[in-house]
Amino acid sequence: MSDKNLNLKHIPKDEYSELMGLIRFYGNFRFAILTLFIAANAGLLTIIYKTEPKLPANLGLSLKIGGCLVTFSLWIAETSVVLVWYRLVCRAVELEHKYLGFKIWSAMPGAPGFKYLPTTYVSALLYAATIVLWVLALTGYICP
């Protein structure tokens, strides 16, 4: 099949529909990452501080380092998801203005330039506080 036979005309409404599905997916993906973050940290904290008899020092130290790495990795993953979500929303706003006349995303406060919503700041605070917790645990300031 040659390129001449392909029907490649741009249909903004179809693109917008696909964007809505992707925006929904990435919004849900953030919650999946947050669930994994909570489960992993709760599991590590339970293993480190509730295991009887006490864990060997080297194993406890390794698990604390693992907690830091898991938290940092999931923070990076969520930040990446937020950046993709932001690009998709910007495209949705552009389609609303240029072609569709919708006011779904373009009517949100700060659109089209809003980069982060309050939930992004709250989740960043949660990740940062958890890393601080793990660093304090590593240094022995809390729960030696």
Tell me what you see in this structure.
It contains 3 helices and no strands. Helix 1 (12-50) runs antiparallel to helix 2 (57-100). The protein has one domain (11-139). It is mainly α and 144 residues long.
Given the C-alpha coordinates, what overall shape results? elongated
- Unreliable sequence segments: none
The domain count comes to: 1
* DSSP helical segment count: 3
Keywords:
single chain; 144 residues; mainly alpha; 3 helices; elongated
Short description:
The chain has 144 residues and is an all-alpha fold. Helix content is 73%, strand content 0%.
SSE map:
Layout (H helix, E strand, L loop, with lengths): L11 H39 L6 H44 L17 H22 L5
